[in-house]
Amino acid sequence: MRFDVISLFPDMFGAVRDVGVTGRAHRQQRWQLQVWNPRDFTHDVHRTVDDRPYGGGPGMVMLAEPLEHAVAAAGQARAEATPSVILMSPTGRRFDQSVAQELADGPGAIVVCGRYEGVDQRFIDRCVTHELSIGDFVLSGGELAAMAIIDSTVRLLPGVLNTADSALQDSFHETLAGLLDSPHYTRPEEYQGERVPEPLLSGHHANIERWRREQSLKLTAQRRPDLILKAREQGRLSAADEKFLQMLDR
Length: 250
Ligand code: SAH
Hints:
Layout: E1 2-6, H1 14-17, H2 20-27, E2 32-36, E3 50-51, E4 61-62, H3 64-76, E5 85-94, H4 97-104, E6 108-112, H5 121-127, E7 130-133, H6 143-154, E8 190-191, E9 194-195, H7 198-201, H8 205-223, H9 225-233, H10 239-249
The structure holds S-adenosyl-L-homocysteine.
S-adenosyl-L-homocysteine is lined by residues 88-91, 113-115, 117-118, 133-135, 137-139, 141-142, 145.
């Protein structure tokens, strides 16, 4: 897995390359990262990477040429003949766990981070294969969005998480039928008068599993009913799940 990131702020990427689970996986060479600065692909003394928008309006727009040259250089460094070029953009397809899984199953990608008002459309038309948004809000730049997708992808790679199971138990994961995760508890057994739910202390594996499943169903029905409908459509809810959901309704 290799990511080539195009960014005016390469220093930001230490946060995903050096720290925590993704940092450890990087040191273990389970994934590679190279950041390319469009400024290094300019030819004027001011190393200009942006200019005012045609048609007027506030802000600046990133120039097509330095971006295109940066993408070309990154492409040369990669093994694939035609690498995916992902532009981070609020107007892109909404990123979610299934996109993370698609990325984790592939060789990685070139990820382009916009700044200012965005990037010249002709760069998008010529070079970009996918546009991804991490949600309906606007960041000052694509870097945090790129790190979000890199982090969520890398943690799905085989061997990156310590216990093989820990990704399987997360929210949205297939084994959870795409539902939300259940609540977690650790020591002490009683905290400020609140006890850990009894089934978790029982040591009875089937009861624990059932309790967790029901908590997932309950939380998802409350907060994300859309995910319940999706799981049902995909045939991922058991008869016991449906019975529990009916009981919640009453
Ligand atoms: N004018 C643009 C926003 C520009 S924000 C618009 O209204 O659509 C500057 C850059 O931040 C964008 O080019 C993009 O790379 C990044 N960005 C901002 N919000 C994002 C989001 N929700 N998802 C992904 N990238 C985002």
